[in-house]
Design brief:
With 303 residues, this protein is an alpha+beta fold. The protein has a single domain, classed as Beta-galactosidase, Chain A, domain 5 (Distorted Sandwich). Helices cover 19% and strands 33% of the residues. Strand 6 and strand 7 form a beta hairpin. The chain is globular. The N terminus and C terminus are likely disordered.
Amino acid sequence: MIAALAAVVAAGYAGLAADPMAYCNAVQNKVGLLRYPLGTIGAWSTTAGEMADVMTRVPRVYPCLDTVVAKEAKEDWRASITGDPAVLMITYQTNKPSGATRVAITVSPHVTAFQVTFPAGSQKKYLVFDFGKKNVDDSAALNRWTDRTVTYLDRRTLHGTIGEPGKVGAAHVIRFSAPCTSSGSFNGSGPISEGATKASGVDASFYAQFDTNTVTVAVAEPFSDMTKAEGFLSTEFSSFEGSHRSCSAAWEQTLNRVELDGTDKSKRMAYTALYTMLVNVIDGQDGSCYRPYYAKSRSAGAL
């Protein structure tokens, strides 16, 4: 079916009109995946949590109320997850450390944006940025990326790096829409170091506290350096709403190359299959660690 749909896309087939975004399922079996068409970064939501990039699997971003908690690797805090190709919407369980926090996620080619809304009346509101490799299979090449560091730059900016010792890995610039009021670090389930400006090691994690009920977090990731990450933030991100509109328009243009007529079920199956194929095609340029394995973009599932 995927091969047939690919041929349809290439031919630019036009049938009877339909709204592909209304029939495209970006969440399957409680797993959500977003990627800007032919983008590099891809946001991922699983039982392990919400990750800014499905390939490097960092940072895992999650909310906490009242106190900072080290989230277990496979503990699902979500109450619900919905979405379309341009946004994921997560609501957390009230009886978890997150409380009933709500998070919306969208993407640009190199930036993932989180819009976090804490429950009204919450006193202490935290976001954790987990750069650990606990969500990586032992047999995966990413398991060798043991150099992991998160650094506090200022009240609105964190820098993160991960990589294999002695080799170039990935850089991250994390930018907040509002200044944090306090911050600190921890490793795994170890003690929290309030006021620390750096976390390092295979379980490096950092947290930031906010006064505002809603905060937007943008995470830029190149496979090079911080300068490139800052450039991506400057050119690709101005607001959550702007990134959402851009992502939605890009997917509408891509998916509208196929217009189907039929039952709601058949259209949903067809558009979901098409999206599943396209969302798994990545742009491996820009110094990506996957670049040596291929000359052109290919499916992430084949790597």
